[in-house]
Structures are given as structure tokens and as C-alpha cells.
Amino acid sequence: MIKLPLLEIDSLAVDYQTGRGRVRAVDDVSFRLEKGETLGLAGESGSGKSTLGLSIMRLVPYPGVIANGHIKIDETDIIKLPEHEMRSIRGGKVGYIFQDPMTSLNPVKKIGAHFVELIRTHEPTTSEKEALERAKTVLKNLGILPERINDYPHQFSGGMRQRIMIGLAIALNPSLVIADEPTTALDVIVQEKILELLESLRKIYGMALILISHDLSIILERCDRIIVMYAGHMAEYTTGAELHRAPKHPYTERLLRSIPNIELSDQKLSAIPGSPPNMLNPPEGCRFWPRCPYVMEICRLKVPPLIAAEPSHLVRCFLYGEKGAKIE
Amino acid sequence: MSEVKIKRRIFPDFVLGFSSLTSKGPSGWMVILGLIIVLALVIMTAIGPWATPYDPIKSNVGPIRAPPSPQFPMGTNHLGQDMLSRTLVGGSIMLQVSALSVLVCFFIGVPLGLFSSYVGGFFDGALSLVIDAVYAFPGLVIAIAVAAVLGPGVVNMALSIAVVYVPSYFRIVRSQVLSIKELAYTEAARATGAKWYTIISRYIFPNVIPSIVVVITVNFADAVLTAAGLTFIGLGVTYDIPDWSWDLTNGWKYLSSRAWWIISFPGLMIILLALGFTLIGEGMSELLNPKLQR
Amino acid sequence: MGKKVLRLSEIVKVENLRKYFPVQKSFLEQIFARRMRYVKAVDDVTFPIKKGEIFTLAGESGCGKTTTGRLVVRLLNPTSGKIYFNDLDITELQGEKLRLLRRKMQIIFQDPYASLNPRMRIGDAVGHPLEMHGLAKGEDKEKVVLDVLEKVGLTPPQQFINLHPHQLSGGQRQRAALARSIILQPEFIVADEPVSMIDVSLRTTIIDLMLGFRKELGLTYLFITHDLAVAKYISDRIAVMYLGKIIEIGSKERLFLKPMHPYTQALMSAIPVPDPKRKRKPIELKGEVPSAINIPSGCRFHPRCPDKKETCALKEPELVEIEKDHLVACHLD
After folding, report:
1. Are B93 and B100 in contact (CB under 8 A)?
2. A80, B9, B92, C240 — which has fewest CB within 10 A?
3. What CATH homologous superfamily does B30-48+74-293 map to?
């Protein structure tokens, strides 16, 4: 039985038309997401991971525009969808958790009002009373006292606000939730609770999750499959276990060696020389070549294609030939 | 010594900045347009005295209240003076008054703002209270009150307007300083052992300048209009030197007798001057704001 | 000034340091309020730092580590307590003496985007300390600046000297800030979360630079971080802070081998590990960190402690040495 993918992205390219030139923030990204699967988007600043997440919701801010490719949610190509239909998908089929809980909630609206607005926008026949009841249920699942439905955002701590954000993202039982750096602004103990909460809710409601983060540790811990992004390109795409066991892209390999692991003693961390490229003027050829220890002549000239070095392990690097064998 | 260094650095920045204005989109064009208007009026006023076809203050060079004609393109007023000549040189007072008031404001408002917010504490609180009280008054009312006390004249007019505007400089500078004071680079300077005047002059002031520029241009525009207002009430210049607001005040009476040209041309000049400054100010605030955000 | 407070090997010592911030009140409240409320950011903190070591203050936001760092370099003035530097009581130092002290202690900040004056070229910003203290001017100053820029890896230095901060990336700016901090050849540097706002792939570079300078310039570091994994990599000794107090302090080895305080244990168990096979078992803590205005009675951690006893709510525990180079403030021992 062939499972129909929940999300299918094909050769996606997203550009920002800035005053100083065109920046291709996302370049030739393709992947599929099954129902209930967790996908991690790992990368640093400028990698394009956030833009990719936003483009799935068609929320890329001006002057960004989807320049190429297809995004199919449940077989529907959402790029060409009229705005009012897209609106029902946002929040309804796909939920989004933003990075900064401090500013993502409306400070002059009660928490209950946030939920009511969300529910009634998508299901206009719901009465306010019903919506509030549903909101209270969601709050209970989040570990927040239902009476706090009448409180304002500033009466909650950062961790609780992020829970509320999660609540808003899942309130309408979406099939997919995109979490963009959900814990970056939070302390580690709260981060743990939030990620656990997300995981348990996901299991209860059977949602797929795209977790976007620069913290490779949390991605490795919690994601079935991982895409490592570098300068807008997919550098590597495989399962978490495989990525950790045998990373193929030099960037991934070096990255893993530069992250301190608290459970190891006497780690020898090695740095990656150079810095991420200026996206207004990325290097010719493979975007990683200025920092790559294995750079070859061809790397400076052509962008390597994404090939399957192994079934379900894609890598964009000239070190891996057509048949997937590593060229030394 | 560091002040001189700053000036040398700022100047090339401005020159480079000017030439790059054309590439900055609609805001850049606004600034350029404003600058052209203002410069044109300044040049006109400067060379006016040599360009007038008739002596601006000589009465009866032509018929009284004559409409525009080839001989008198802007007509004549009730004293038979040529309006074109008067319009060409009439900006002098306004420009002097606004420039002087901006200078006074700047050299009082900015240092006050810098010191008060840097020192903080009770002094800052008390001074802010006083400044806010002044700020709460409608500008024209204060200007009228001060002008009534000081009497007419260019310098007194400038001072009256200056009193109105010092609070704006003070507040803007203060709010900028309060936020810059907390930024890491100011703390770093302190941590390295910088003296207070070094911190203010090299770390705080240069970063406050963008916001002051906007206030300066708004100040100019408002000064022009307030000066016109003061003259209208009779608290401005009273002797007969050619002045747009003087003509405005007198020409007003003749509107009903259909002598529209007496107030229209001077009035247009006042509007243009204020508009020019406003365009510069608006354009600059748009240009400087996104940069301020990062 | 004659009494030796520090041991021979200690460069900095902090004793019973407290910093209370009065809670901001409105004008009316100031007139009518009865008593002041305080944010007890740092509440009786004592620790020595040995010459040449990297001493880390670790903890979550609000624990007081950043405030302590600023107190040590006298960017803030303590409410009470003492700070010693090289056997000199610097707590009340003012004026010129304080300025001279500043040449020996420096600080690096967390946000690379805010730590450099946007209106100064890199060369001027990095070289300004030399000018401030009258140590070098003009060409001599430029020579030193070029040299130090080279040291932090901003090469070619002649190019970077003329750039403005907005033309540099976050990692490069932090390097420039590092250059500025070492140009006076200080003995002691407080590094306040120097890598938390930098891309992951660049963190090791900055950390390696800092470690290199320790050897090359004989520096001692007070390292402040919330990231225990980084703390483990870089530190010699670590103090864990909670709500203004040090609750556990010791050598890196002891602390990570046998964390004794329930908070330390919970903190360590919550840190993600870059290994999908590893099944972490995080320790659950009730509730969240309380506000520093209303500090719980007794042991300030007791409302959240999974192992609390009766005495925990009544008496505040003292730091007690439970093994060599390992002190804990907890009633459970």
C-alpha cells in the first residue's frame, strides 16, 4: 500500500527582492513528509530553514516571493491557491508555532479571546461559548489551569506563553505543525517541558511535525528524518540515526564535531573555518566549498546535484558519485 | 579634540550619503526634492537684492493694487510696491529667524538632553517634568507669550520660537540616550575606563544624530510657519522690510476687494519653504528609521 | 590594605556579594508606599577565582550570573559585600584608581550586534582603549590594532580596520569585541555568554580563540553561560546559581561526575544530547523559577524540589564541602 504523503515539496525556490539585489533564500528543496512523521530542519543563520517553514504556510514576508516549485498539502498545490482557501489551511490543516512567545500574542486580548477568534474564523458556526469550552480543554492538555482563560498574555511566563502558542497551533487539530525555533528564547528546563509537551500532543492527535532549529541536539533527539540546510541548499537529507552514525556531507560531519556533548568527557571539538556565506553574493558552485576540507576543482564551478548516496540518504556533494559511492 | 575628529568623519559620510540618496527609493527622492526647493529659495533670497526689477520698498512704482501684468508680473500692493520684487527678497527674515531658532534650540536642547539623561536620577526627573510642562503648551501660544514679553525683532522672534522647540530636541535626545546608554557598546566603553565626556561625545552623540536631523528639519518648517503667525499678530517684524509674512498680513485685508495677488505669491513662498523642509524631514526619517532598527 | 585576603593563587575573590534592585515604582507609589520591595538579583555570593583558570557561573536566566559578572568588573555597584582583585579591595574604588583598574579587567558581552559602536570603524573601536589610557596614538596605535586583529582571525587586518560593524557578520563582530578586550593586555576577562548568539558552527572558533589567549596572554576568565555543555567543555571550575545564590560549586570533574544538588541534577538531565540513540531521562521539576522579588523561605529551591524535606522550607542551607573541591548548599546531606 502506497501511503500518500501529507506534504510534498518539489524544487522549491524562494527569493527575497531586496534593495541590494535578489537573495535566493531557498534553492531547489524537495522532500516528502508522511502523516505523523517528524522532520527536523537544521541549519544556521542564512540557511533558509525559517523561510522554508514560512513558505509552507505561504507566510513569507515581503519582499519574499515563491519563485519556483510546488508545495502540495494533501495533494493540493497551495502555491496557486486563492487567498481565502489558503486562510482556511493556515491554522486549520497546518499549524505554526512562532519563535518568540513574548511578542507573538496580542497583549490586549485575553487568552480565551485568542482561541475564540481562531476557532470561529475557521468554524464560523461555533458559538462563543462552545469555542471557550474547547479552549479550556486545550489549556488543560497544556497543563494550564482552565480558569486562566480570562488572563492576559503578560500574566504568563515565557514558558507558559509558548505553551499557549502551541495550544493555538493545535487547537483545530491540524495534520501538520511547523515549529520554528520554539525553544530558542527559553531556558533549558522549560525547553525540555515544551518539547515533551509537543511530542505528547503530537502522538495524541497524530500530527506530523516539522521542527526548525539551529540546535542540532534537539533535532537529533526528536526527529525521524532530518534535512541539514546550508545557504539555502539541502546539504543532506536522511534519518536521524543515519545522520548521526554516518554523516556524508562535510558540513554535517564538521558540525557534529563542533557541538559539545554533555555526556562525553574530554571532547576534542573542532571548529569549521570561515563563516556562512553572504547570501547576496554566494560562492560559485557548491556554497560550502570555501570552508570545505575536501574541496575539489569541480566544487568551485558547479553546484552539486542532490543524489541518493544510499536509498533514503540524499546528499549534495561531489564526493559522492552517481552510484552513491564515495570518491576519494 | 575628539569633537574635531567627529566632524571630519561625519562630513565625508554626509557627502557620500548625499550622492547615494538617488538610489534609496521614494524617500531619497523626497529628500532631494526638498533640498532643491529649499536651496532654490535660499539662492533666490540671496541674489534677490540684485535681481529685483524695482526697489522693493519704494512705494508707488506702479499703480496701487494693480493686478499681474507684463510690467508687474505679480501685481502691486496697496502701497504701489512691486510684488515680484518683494517676493524675491521677502524670504530673508524668515530664513534668518528659522535658522537662528534652530541654532539656539540645538545648542540648548541637545546638550541639556544629553547630560540630563546620562546623569539620570533626581535631576533628570525634575528637568523632564519642567520640559514636559513646556511641551504641553500649544507652540504658538508660548511663542506669542514670549514674543509679547521680548518685543519685535528678528532675534526675539527666533528666541520665542526656540523656547517652543527646545522640549522636542530634549525629549528626542533623551529617549535615544536612555536606550543607547543600556547598549553593550556603551557599557564596554565604561568598562574600558572611558571618561564620561568621551562616552557622551564618541559613543552616545554620534548615534543620536540621525534622530536630531529629523527634528531639525521639522523645527525649520515649523519655525517658518510660526514666524508667519507671529508677524500676522503683529509680534514679528513691524518695520517695512520686505517680508513674506508682512505681505501676507497686509494683503489679507484686500482679499475682499479681489486683489488676490497680494497674499497669494508671498503665501505660496511660505508654503513652499515649509514644504521643502518638511519633505527633507519626512524623507530623512524614513531613510534613517530602517537603519536605526538594526 | 596590608592584610592578605587572597591566597597566593587567587586573582579575584568575591565575598558575601549582594545586589538588590529596588522595584520601580510610579511617582505616587513612591510617596505613599510603606516599604521598598527589592529584586534580589545577587543574594550573598562568595567564590574565589584562581589565576589562570576558567571559572564558570552557570544557571538559567534570572539566576543572577550576569549581574554577578557586571559587579565583578564594577559596571554595577554592589549593595553589600566585597570584591577583591589581586589582593586589593576594589569594592569602593572610584575615579582614577578605578580607571587604572579597568586596564586589568575586561568584559565581553553576549550580543555581537550591540557590543560595537555602529558609528566607529573597527580599527577605532578596537584601538580606543589604547587612546583612552594614553598608551598609544596614531601609527603606534594602528600597529597594535593590526596585530590584535590578526590574532583574533580577522584577516587581512588592513581590510577589517576600515570596516563598520554592520559590514561584519555576528561571528566577526564577536571577534572584534574579543580583540578590543585583549588589546590592553588585561589579566582578567569576564565573558558574558560570548557564544550564545553566534551560529553553532562558529562557536568553537571563538571558544578556541579564548582558550588560546589564556595560554598566550596568561588570562583568567570568569565565564558566564546557561549552556552546561559548553561549560563542561571550557571550564576548570563551575558554580551553579539559582535565584541569586550559588547552590553548588566545584571542579568540573566533580560536578559533572556527581552532581549533588537536585537542581543541578535536573538541569543536567534536561540538556539535549546530539545522539538519537541515547534515551535521556529528564528529571521533572514542578512549576517555574519564581520571581526574585518574592524569594521562597528557607532553601529557595524547595517549592520545586522533588526530594524536599521538612527543614527545607524553614532553614536556608549553607554551602558545605562534601568532598574535596565540591561544595553544595542542600539539606539532603
Report:
1. no
2. A80
3. MetI-like (1.10.3720.10)
Query: What's the rounded Cα separation, in Å, for the pair B225 and B230?
Result: 9
Tell me the three state secondary structure of residue B143: helix
pLDDT digits (tens, 9 = 90+) for B230-277: 888 878 776 667 888 888 887 777 776 777 788 888 888 889 999 999
> CB distance from B25 to chain A under 8 Å?
yes
Buried b (16+ CB within 10 A) or exposed e, B158-197: bbbbbbbbbbbbbbbbbebbeebbebbbbbbbbbbbbeee
Question: pTM to 2 decimals?
Answer: 0.83
The whole-angstrom separation of Cα B117 and Cα B196 is: 13
Please, are residues A176 and A96 in contact by the beta-carbon 8 Å criterion? Answer: no
User: Is residue A45 one of the residues assigned to a domain?
Assistant: yes
A contact test, residue of C275, C278, C294 with most A CBs within 10 A: C275
Q: Is residue A135 part of a domain?
A: no
Contacts with C177 from chain B: Cβ below 8 Å: 188
3-state SS assignment for residue C199: coil
Give B22: exposed, middle or buried? Use CB within 10 Å, 0-12, 13-18, 19+: exposed
A273–C232: do the CB atoms touch at under 8 Å? no
Phi first, then psi, for residue A70 (nearest 5°) are: -130, 145
Q: What is the pLDDT of residue A324?
A: 52
CA nearest to B24 within chain A: A19
Distance from CA of C223 to the nearest CA of B (A): 16
| CA B122 to centroid of chain Cα atoms | 32
CB C129 within 8 A of CB C110: no
Distance CA A261, CA C60 (A): 19
Minimum-distance CB partner of B194 among C105, C132, C177: C132
Residue of C298, C186, C305, C322 whose CA lies nearest to C250: C322
Is it true that the peptide bond before B167 is cis, omega within 30 degrees of 0? no
Share of chain A above pLDDT 90, in %: 41
Chain C: closest CA distance from residue B186 (Å): 8
Q: Which of B185, B193, B198 sits opposite C114 (nearest CB)?
A: B185
Which structural domains are found in chain C, ordered by start? Answer: 10-104+229-329 (3.40.50.300)
The count of structural domains within chain A is 1
Look up the ipTM and state it. Answer: 0.84
CATH number at residue A27: 3.40.50.300
How far, in whole angstroms, is CA C43 from its chain's centroid?
Answer: 16
Residue whose grid cell is 527545607: C312
Q: What chains are in contact with B, requiring at least 3 Cβ pairs below 8 Å?
A: A, C
As a whole number of angstroms, the longest Cα–Cα distance in chain C is 68
| pLDDT value for B9 | 47
Structural domain for A159, as ranges: 7-108+152-316
Chains that touch A (3 or more CB pairs under 8 A): B, C
Could you tell me the three cell numbers for A276?
556562512
pLDDT digits over B122-138, tens only? 888 899 999 999 899 88
Measured distance CA(B2)–CA(B5) in Å, rounded: 5
For the residues of C244-306, what is the DSSP string, one character each? TEEEEEEEHHHHHHS--SHHHHHHHHTS--S-TT----PPP--S-PPPTTSPPSSSTTGGG-T
Q: Where are the domains of chain B?
A: 30-48+74-293
Query: Sign (positive/negative) of CA torsion B94, B99, B103, B109?
Result: positive
Residue A66 DSSP SS3 = strand
- Are C327 and C320 in contact, with CB atoms under 8 Å apart? yes
Residues of B in contact with C118 (CB under 8 A): 185, 207
Size of interface A-B (CB pairs under 8 A): 3
For residue A180, what are the β-bridge partners?
A212
Percent of residues in chain A assigned helix, strand, coil, to nearest 5: 35, 25, 40
